[in-house]
Fold each of these.
Amino acid sequence: MSWLRNPWGRPRALVLVTALYIVWSIVPVVVAVLFAFNNGRSRTTWQGFSLRWFTGANGSVFHDPALQSALKHTLLLAVICVALCVPLGVLLALGLQRWRGHGSGTVNTLMLLPLVTPEIVMGVALLLLFLRVFPGVGLGTPAQAIGQVTFTLSYVVVMVRGRLASIGPDYEEAAADLGAPPRDQLVRVLLPLLAPAIIASAAVAFALSIDDFVVTQYLSGDASTTTVSMLLYASARGAPTPALNAIATVALVITLATLALAFFLYRRFAGARETAAVATLEM
Amino acid sequence: MAGEIHLAELTKVFDDVIAVDGIDLEIPPGEFFTLLGPSGCGKTTTLRMIAGFERPTSGRIVLDGVDVARVPPHKRSVNTVFQSYALFPHLNVAGNIAFGLKYHKLAKEERQRRVAEVLESVRMEGFAQRKPEQLSGGQQQRVALARALVLTPRVLLLDEPLGALDARLRKDLQVELKTLQNEVGITFVFVTHDQEEALTMSDRLAVMNDGRIEQAGSPREVYEEPTTEFVADFLGISNLLTGEADGRGGLTIGEWTFVCGQGATSARGDVKAMIRPERIVLEPYGSSGQNRLPGMIEHSVFLGGMHEIHVRVLGGELLKATVANDGSAQNVNLEHGAPVTLHLPEDALRLLAPPVTAQADNAAAAAERPVRTAPSR
Amino acid sequence: MGGRWTWRLAALPGVAWLSIFFLVALYAVVSVAFGNQDTLSQPVPFWNPLDWNVGYVLEALRNIWHGGPFLTAFLRTFEFVAIAMALSLAIGYPVAYYAARHAGRWKGLVLLLLIVPFWINYLMRMLAWINLLSPDGWGTRVLHDIGIERVFITLGLLSTRGGWLDGQQSTVLIALVYGYIPFLILPLFVALDRIDQRHLEAARDLGATPLSAFLRVTLPLSVPGILAGLVLVALPMFGDYYTPDLVCAAPKCNMIGNQIDQLTRQGSEKVTGAVLTIMLALLLLALMFYYLRTTRRAGTASAST
C-alpha cells in the first residue's frame, strides 16, 4: 500500500489539515450555542449553565416580544414558502423532465438562473418590483414570501428532477400496460416513488427559508416583519444578551432537525448513494 | 379468435429516422411468435406499438378484428413483460400482481384467489410478501410474468425478458416459458436478438433488419430455406460464396461451376450462395465430381461432439464445415495446412436473393422512383 | 404518456411564477436604472426602451472613470474576492482531497461534518466569529496568546491589539473565507471523488511516482471541479455586503454590495443603486453562463446513469 502515500509527504499532514479545518469550522458555532446557556449577560465570559435566555422571565426567547415575534415570523414565512414552492416545483420538474419538443432548454435555463444570481441582485430586483410594479402588494410578509419562493423553487426542481431521472418512464408504462389510466399512473405509481424527493426538497426549502437573509431583509416592511436572520444582523454588533445566541440556537436546531429527518427518510427509500448526491446538491 | 394480430403497413418514424418501415405481419391466435433481429432493427419499436407505448406514424394494428393503433395502452387487452421487469419497488409481490386487477372489478377474495393461483403457476408461492429488491433476477422475471398473466390478456408481449440472466438460467427459463405458453394457450409475441433462443422457442418467427421484415416463417423454414443473405447470415453459420448465376441454377465461381438446387434458382448475375456447415462433405483432396471445390484447412476447432473445420477456398472465402466425431471423415487429412476437397451437395447449395432493402432499391431504380435511403450494409 | 401539452402545462405555473417574479423583477431594475427620480426622491422606472434616460448611468460611469468611490468599491471587491478565493482553495483543496480519497472508514463522518456548516445560518456563523473576536472574546485571547496577533500587527494587517472588529480589512477576508469555504469544498469533494481510482493505478503502473501521478492525473482531472467551485463561490461573494458590515462596518471595507445596499435599501438613491446592480450583474454574467453550461452538461451525464 506504499504507493498510496500522498504527495505532501505523509497522509498525516492531510489528516491534520482536515481535522484543523473541521475544528475551525464548527467550534465557533458550538461556542456560540454554548453561550446561549450562559448564566449571565456576557457572551464572552462563561458564568455557569442556565436556561434563562430560553425560558427565563426577562428577555428570553419565550418571553421577549421582539424575539418571539421574530421567531414566529420566521416560521410563518418558512411554512408559506414550502407550501408554495413544493407544488410549483414538483409540477415544474415533471414538466421539464418530460417536455417533448423545443423550448425545454430555455425553460431549463430560466429555472437555473436564480441559483446563480447573487442575492443582492435578486434583493434589489424584488424590492423595485414590489415598489413600482406591484405597489398594491408593497413590502411585507406577502412580498417576503414571494421572494423566498422565487429563489427556493429552483432547488426543489433540481432535487425532484434528479429523482425523476433515476425513476425513468418504465414504471408508468408498466402501470398503463396493466390498465391504469393516466391519473392512476401518476397517483398510484409515480407519486409514491417520487415521495422521498418531494419530502427532502420540502425540508431543503424550509431550511433555506429560515436561513435566508438578503431577500427577506430587502422585502421587509416594518418591525413586525423581522425574522431571526434580520435580528441577528441588526443586533450582532451591538451589545446584545445571550438571548440572541439562544434564538439563533433555536432556529439552528429546527433547521438541522428538519433536514436530518428528511434525509433519513430519503435514505430509507432511495439508498445511500443517491442521498449523498442530493445532500451535496450535485446539480 | 382470441389473440389474433394483424399488422398492416405499420410504419414508425422518429424525427428523420425510419424505425419501422411499413411491415405486414399475421400472427394467428395461440402462437408463440418471435421478432428476431440485431439492435436497431425495429423489433422493440414494433412491440411497443402493439403494446401502445408508441403511436404508429401510419398503418394498422388489428387485434381480433379491431384496429387498436390509436387506442391508449391501458385500454388494450394486451400485456407486456418488460426487459427491466419494471416491478413497482414500493409494492410487494402480491401488490404488484394485484395492481392491474383493480381495474377488473372483482371482489377482494376473488382477487386474492387469482393472485395465489398465478403465483403457483409461475412457482413463486410463498414470495407474496417479499419486495422486488429482495428477489433474484429470475424470480423478478417470474413475478413480472405473473403480473401480466393474472389479467388474462389475449396477447402477451415479451421484450427480451431473458436478456439480463446468466446462460444456464436462460436455458431453464426458455423451457419454462414455452411450457407456460402451451398451458395458457394465449398468443406470445417475443422479441430477442438471440437467434438460438428464437429457434428454440418459437412456433414461427420473423427476421427483421433496418425496419423491415426480411423473412417470416417456421424456425426450420427460416434456417434451412433463408431467402436473403441477411437471414442466412443471422441464423447460424451461413458460409457465403460469391459468384455469377446463369439464371438456371448454375453458379460460376472463378473457374468452377456448381449446380444450386435451392433458393432463387432463376436469379442472374452477381449473387451469393450459401450452404450450412453440417451439409458440407469433406473429401480427400483431388476427389472429382459435380459441386466440388478445393481448399486448404486453416483451423480445426474441437466442439465436443464435433469438429468445426475452417477451410480457405480458392475464391478467398473461409468456409466452416462441421464434422461429427463419429469416424465419418476418417479418410480425410484434417491437419492444419492440409489441402482438402469440399463437396457442396446440389440439394444443400442455396442461391440467395439480395437483402430486402437492396431489392427495394433495385425495384425503385427500375421503376425510376427515388431510392429509399443510403446504400444498405 | 399524456400528450405533448400535458407536461408543458404542468410546467406552466412555475414558468409563469419565474417570469413574473424573476424576469420582470430584473427588468424593473433595468427600467429604474434608465429611469429618473421624482420629487420625493423615489425612483420612476421608464419601461419603454425608447424613453430611457441615460443620465444616471452616465453619471455612474463618470464616477468610475474618474476613480471615484464606485471604482474603489469595485476594485476592492475584486481584491477581496480574489484573495478570499485563493485562500479558500489553498485550505479547501487538501481537505476535499483527503475526504474524497484518503478518508477510508471516516468518509461518511467527514462528509457529514463538511456538509453541516453548509446548512447553518450564515449570519449565525458570523455571529459566532463576532463573539470570538470581540475585545474580550475567547478568540482574541487565543490569538494573542499564541502570537498570531503580534504577527498580524507587524505585517500591518491589524491596527490595534484586540481590535479585530474595528474596521480591519483582514478580518473581512478571514470572515469571507470562513463563510464561503464550505461552498467550495463540496464541489471540490464531488469532483475529486468522481476521479476513477483506476486512472491513478494506471499511472502508477506506467511508472509515475505518487507526486507525479497527482500532478499529471488527479490535478488536471479535478480542474473542471475547481473552476466550478470557484465560480459557485465567486458569484455570491461579489454581491456580499453583510459580511463587511458585520465584521468591519467602516468605509474602507466597503465592497460593491455595500454601495448598492446603502443606495437602495438604506438610502434614497435607488436609481444609482439600480445602475450599480446592473453593472454588477453584467460583470458576473459571463461567470453565470459558464456555470450554467458546465452543470447542464454534467446534469445530463449523471441523469443517464
Note: The longest strand of chain B covers residues 17-27.
Amino acid sequence: MNWLTNFIRPRINSIVPSKEVPDNLWQKCPSCEGMLFHRDLEESSKVCYHCGHHLRITVKERLSIMFDDGQYETVELPKVAHDPLKFKDRKKYADRLKESQAKTGLKDAMTIAKGTIGGQKAVIAAFNFSFMGGSMGMAVGESIVKAAEIAVKEKAALITIPSSGGARMQEGMLSLVQMPRSIIAVEMVKDAGLPYIVLLTDPTTGGVSASFAMVGDIHLAEPGSTIGFAGRRVIEETVRETLPDDFQTAEYLLDHGIVDMVVQRGDLRDTIGRILNLLMSTEKKSKKAA
Amino acid sequence: MSQLDFEKPILELEGKIAELRNVSGENGVHIAEEISRMEEKSSRLLKQAYGKLTPAQKVQVARHQNRPHCSDYIKALIQDFTPLAGDRNFAEDHALIAGLGRFGGQSCIIMGHEKGSDTESRIKHNFGMVRPEGYRKAQRLMKMATQFQIPVITFIDTAGAYPGKGAEERGQSEAIAKSIESCLRTEVPIISIVIGEGGSGGAIAIAVADKIYMLEHSIYSVISPEGCASILWRSGEQAKEAANALKLTAQDLYSMKLIDGIINEPLGGAHRHKEETIKNVKDTIDGALQDLLPWDAKSLIRTRREKFLAFGRNL
C-alpha cells in the first residue's frame, strides 16, 4: 500500500494534471450511502435525490435559496471583546478562533443578511456550523441583537436559522448570558409587531435550542434535523434505556407539538414567503391597529 | 460527598475537639486549655484553606450537601409561606419549589431549585434537576406575580436541567426558553441569589433578574467543569483545569460585572454556619428590595433588558 500511495500515485498525478479530475465530483449520501454527483446535488440544494436526506449546506448556499431571486445583502457583524477569559484548554481559544476564521473566511459563527422573501422584507441571522460547531458566544449573541435591531428599523421580519451545538463554553458565563440576550432581541421584534420565524436545522441543541430558537411565532424545521436540549448520549447514560431511532428528530418534534412544520429545503422560500405575506400584508390590520 | 478532601485535617481536628468536649466534664481545667488550643489551630487551618480556595475547591464547597438549601432559606426567611404546585398541564415538579409568602412585611413569590437533604428527599426533588413542568410552573407564577404586583425572589441551586427522555418529549428547551422570556416580561422586581450551584441553562431559566447575587463560595457556569473537561480535554480528569478556565466563581463573575454583589459566607463556608449565612442572605435581599421598591413596570422592564444587553459590552 505504501509503495502504491507514496510512489505510484504521485507519479501518476505528475503525469495527469490534477485539475482535470477533481476528487470531489462524487460524494456518498451519509444516510443511504447512495452516490451523488456534485452537479445534481447542487441542483437539489444538497438534498439526496435517492432518499431525500438533507445534507448540511453552507450559509451562502442557504441564503441564496431562501431570499427572492437569491438576492441579499450581508451586514457586518458587530464588534465584541475577543477571548475575555483568556481561555485555554489543550489549545488556546484565541488560536482556535483564528484557525476557524482562516478556515471559513468568517469572523464568527453567524451571518446576518437582509432581502425579501415572497416580496416581504426579511432579516436572516444564520449560523455557520463549520465555525466552531456553530457555538453561541458573544459575537453570535450580539449579532442576533443587531439582526433584530435592523428588522425593527426596517420593519422587516426576523428569521433565525440555528445550526449549533449550543453555547461556546470557551467564553464561560459570557456565553450563557447570550440565552437571555438573544431572547431580548426577539422581544424587540415582537414589541414592534413583526413576525419572528425560526428555521431549525441540523443540529439545534443545548443553550441555542433553549433560548431564541424556541420562542418563535412559528417554528419550521428541516427534515431529519437533530433538535433537542440534552445530547442523546447524556440522556442514555441518565435514563439507562435505549431511545427511539427518531428521538430528537424534526419529525419527532412535530409529533410532540414543538414545531409547526417540517419543510423540505426546496419548499422553504415559498412556505416562508406565504407565511410572511399572511402575517405582514397591510389589509389584515384590525381597527385597533389602524 | 459530605467530606471535602482539602478539609480533611480540619475535620479531624474538629472531631477531636468534639470528643474532648464530651469528656471535659470529668477532668476540668486541663482539658479546657487543650480544647481552646486545638480550636485556635482549627480556625487557623480554616483561615488558610478558605482564604485561598481554588475554583475547583469552590465547586466542591458549592455542592456540599450540608449547605443551606432553598427550603432552609424559605423556612428561615419567609413568613406565611404557602407552597404552590403544578404547571396546570402535566405534573408538579418537586425540583423547583415555589410559593407565596412574606419577606419582612412584603408579599412575594418565592421559587428555587431544591436538591434535597437525604436520600429520600433527594430522590423526591430529583437532585434539583428540573423538568419542563418545573419551568412551566415558574412561568405561571411569574405571570401571577405581575397580576398581583408582588416581587419575585429566586434561589439558584442546580447541576442543570434534567436530561431525560420525557423531558425532551415535553419540550425541555422550550420550557427553559419561555421561562427566560417570562422573567424578561415580569412587571415586578426579580431578585436572584445563587446559593450553591448555578448550572447552565437550568439555572439561568429563573435567574434573569434585576438584582443577581452569589454567595461567596457558590459557582455559576455555562457547563459543569467535568462536562467541559470531557469535551475540550477529552477526559473528565481535567475538571480542575476546566474549573479554572471557566471563570465560574462569584469573584470572577463580579469582576466581569455579570452579578451585582457577593454575599459573605462565615469562615469555613455556609455548610458550617447555616444561620449566619442565611442572615447574610436576608440582609442582601432587604437591601435589594429597598433599592427596587417602589417600581414603575415600564422602566423596570427596560432597565432589566438594558442590564442584560450591557453584559460583555464593557469588557
Note: Chain B is about 50% helix and 15% strand.
